[in-house]
């Protein structure tokens, strides 16, 4: 399909009423006027989704792959077929409902582990019996873990042995948790630990054998049955539990099926192979796996160490690769660093071929009969050599990296946008669209509108294109936050519209581009949320800092800041650290050696005040003149006006990031 200059990826619903202060709802161009949004009647539950994939291969296809580690060496992939998985799910589900474990429909069960076959089997065994899974990130801290387990009143948790030990070490913090099911055989010290804590410990394999002796029919969920409470990592305070129904959980797959049927997405089939390493506790990985399962594809799990991911890829040879910008940025940086270090004819040829293919992207082509074979083949082989599609989510992908992936891997490169509350299903770029800098049109199960944010100057009447807060309604939108009606009411209105907190713009092709955040909270490239005002409060306690403006970007993994130092204190610090005392104060503020020492000193202070690594500032500009109301940098209550500060220091901030990259 050729993308012409007049092509539109979505349209404003002509039947929707005109509401002042917002655009009309936009829908994907494949949804005809007066038709309902793509629903989930064909495969309306996680069970039906799995059985569709099962039937694609008559149960004989390989489904879940894993590598045993023997003497610290990863062995070849072993596979569990769809039929074998279904039998395991029946047995484990029956064991969950036995008197020993005794989980009932609509009760929660925790999953606490890195990705592995048992994670998926536990999820299916719970879902197919109308239980509610509560995934726990394997990196959760004690406070977040305690909050989640206690809020859902979790009685049973399935975990890898290392995570089971972590639970037992703080078991007094979880008064409702009484049973832990471990994925690996029960070690003697772990059993002793459990006995001392009065916790019942079960081995997953033993429960499977017990379940086989008394197979129970599934208590199948309905479309509206809650399937998962997925906790967001949050920015400040406690994590929030998004209530997700079966309808929500399969909406992404239904949307992909619609795109595939219209030749807007790769023809995924039972022949496709997917490498799973992004955490299954995150909705992005979950919906990708749900989609692969729908088509009867193969899912191979990494060995548990992202440092060995390329080894897994070389063995598995995946055709589908989902990732996040942080890893894709690393691949981009590594390739360019190697080219620049190599230099000579090799660098010249690479750049010549790269620029040639970049011109091809503007014509809608990312392949070249010669360059793909003699220049870019080695890069493709890094991911096994068979990748046909790369999918990116969780944070925006820069235009440079998007172009790089298209050029070097010659495959479909698609970027999605969504949140936990929309189960990663809000917008997605189409495979024929190779223009970077946007996140595509609305996906077919939802409709999207922009709402005015007047105090930030974003209006639905802006020219040439409407701007405002992105709001979404449809099949993928969650039902609310668990036991938190007040917070639910803040983001979900009575008509089902969810406020994302992101500022977007409809571009000339009716695609969404993310341009800002409503709140002073942003996500870094690695997916971490940052609350700049909290960070500023900490640094303002440093003896040299008078005023501060902390800045971060979704395409960058580090924070930078503009700082107004206390004049006398800074001069004393600078002279003590080698600055010529005859210099003016303005010249002292430019001394790079002193700035480097000040950053180190400030970050010692920051860590002593419990800021995390990603919350510390990595580069600064020292502003010798105060922020003032007269410059419109301060509000009447002397709070920094972030938008105005960003405008003033935009070029400086760009240089701060450039310096970090040069280092």
UniProtKB/TrEMBL annotation:
Keywords assigned by UniProt, alphabetized: ATP-binding, Nucleotide-binding
InterPro entries, per database record: AMP-binding_CS (IPR020845), AMP-dep_synth/lig_dom (IPR000873), ANL_N_sf (IPR042099)
Listed Pfam families: AMP-binding, AMP-binding_C_3
Coiled coil (residue ranges): none
MF (Gene Ontology): ATP binding; long-chain fatty acid-CoA ligase activity
Top-rank taxon: Eukaryota
GO-annotated cellular components: endoplasmic reticulum; membrane
Domain called AMP-dependent synthetase/ligase: residue spans: 75-482
Keyword ATP-binding: yes
PANTHER family: AMP-BINDING DOMAIN-CONTAINING PROTEIN-RELATED, LONG-CHAIN-FATTY-ACID--COA LIGASE
Name of the protein this chain belongs to: Acetyl-CoA synthetase-like protein
Organism encoding this protein: Piromyces finnis
């Amino acid at each position: 399909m050729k993308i012409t200059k007049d092509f539109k990826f979505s349209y404003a619903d002509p039947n929707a009423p005109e509401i002042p202060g917002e655009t009309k709802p936009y829908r994907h161009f494949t949804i005809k006027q007066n038709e309902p949004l793509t629903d989930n009647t064909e495969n309306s539950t996680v069970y039906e989704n799995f059985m569709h994939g099962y039937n694609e291969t008559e149960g004989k296809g390989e489904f879940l792959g894993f590598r045993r580690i023997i003497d610290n060496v990863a062995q070849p992939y072993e596979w569990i077929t769809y039929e074998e998985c279904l039998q395991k799910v029946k047995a484990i589900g029956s064991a969950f409902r036995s008197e020993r474990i005794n989980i009932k429909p609509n009760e929660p069960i925790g999953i606490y582990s890195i990705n592995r076959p048992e994670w998926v089997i536990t999820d299916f065994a719970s879902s197919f019996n109308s239980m509610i899974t509560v995934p726990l990130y394997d990196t959760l801290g004690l406070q977040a873990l305690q909050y989640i387990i206690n809020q859902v009143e979790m009685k049973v948790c399935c975990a890898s042995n290392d995570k089971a030990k972590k639970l037992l070490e703080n078991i007094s913090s979880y008064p409702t948790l009484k049973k832990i099911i471990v994925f690996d055989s029960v070690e003697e010290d772990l059993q002793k630990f459990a006995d001392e804590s009065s916790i019942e410990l079960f081995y997953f394999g033993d429960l499977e054998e017990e379940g086989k002796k008394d197979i129970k029919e599934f208590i199948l969920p309905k479309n509206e049955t809650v399937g998962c409470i997925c906790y967001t990592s949050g920015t400040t305070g406690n994590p929030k539990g998004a209530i997700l129904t079966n309808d929500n959980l399969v909406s992404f797959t239904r949307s992909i099926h619609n795109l595939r049927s219209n030749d807007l997405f790769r023809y995924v089939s039972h022949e496709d192979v997917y490498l799973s390493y992004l955490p299954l506790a995150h909705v992005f990985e979950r919906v990708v796996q749900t989609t692969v399962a729908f088509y009867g594809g193969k899912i191979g799990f990494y060995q548990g160490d992202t440092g060995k991911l390329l080894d897994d890829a070389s063995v598995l040879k995946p055709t589908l690769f989902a990732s996040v910008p942080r890893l894709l940025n690393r691949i981009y940086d590594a390739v360019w660093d190697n080219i620049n270090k190599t230099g000579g004819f090799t660098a010249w040829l690479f750049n010549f071929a790269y620029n040639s293919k970049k011109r091809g992207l503007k014509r809608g082509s990312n392949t070249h009969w010669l360059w793909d074979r003699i220049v870019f083949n080695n890069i493709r082989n890094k991911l096994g050599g068979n990748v046909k599609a790369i999918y990116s989510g969780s944070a925006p992908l820069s235009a440079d990296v998007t172009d790089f992936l298209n050029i070097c891997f010659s495959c479909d490169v698609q970027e999605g946008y969504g949140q936990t509350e929309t189960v990663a299903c809000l917008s997605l770029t189409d495979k024929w669209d190779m223009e970077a800098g946007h996140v595509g049109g609305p996906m077919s199960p939802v409709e999207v509108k922009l709402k005015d944010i007047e105090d930030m100057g974003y209006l639905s009447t802006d020219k040439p294109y409407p701007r405002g807060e992105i709001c979404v309604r449809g099949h993928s939108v969650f039902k609310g936050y668990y036991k938190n009606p007040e917070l639910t009411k803040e983001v979900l209105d009575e008509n089902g519209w969810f406020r994302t907190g992101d500022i977007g713009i409809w571009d000339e092709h009716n695609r969404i581009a993310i341009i800002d955040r409503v709140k002073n909270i942003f996500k870094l490239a690695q997916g971490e949320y940052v609350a700049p005002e909290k960070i500023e409060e900490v640094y303002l306690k440093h003896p040299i800092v008078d005023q501060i403006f902390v800045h971060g970007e979704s395409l960058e993994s580090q924070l930078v800041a503009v700082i107004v130092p206390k004049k006398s204190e800074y001069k004393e610090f600078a002279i003590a650290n080698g600055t010529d005392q005859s210099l003016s104060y303005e010249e002292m503020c430019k001394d790079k050696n002193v700035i480097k020492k000040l950053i180190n000193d400030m970050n010692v202070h920051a860590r002593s005040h419990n800021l995390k690594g990603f919350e510390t500032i990595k580069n600064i500009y020292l502003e010798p003149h105060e922020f003032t109301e007269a410059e419109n940098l301060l509000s009447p209550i002397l709070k920094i006006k972030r938008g105005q500060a960003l405008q003033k220091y935009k070029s400086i901030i760009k240089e701060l990031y450039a310096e970090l990259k040069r280092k």
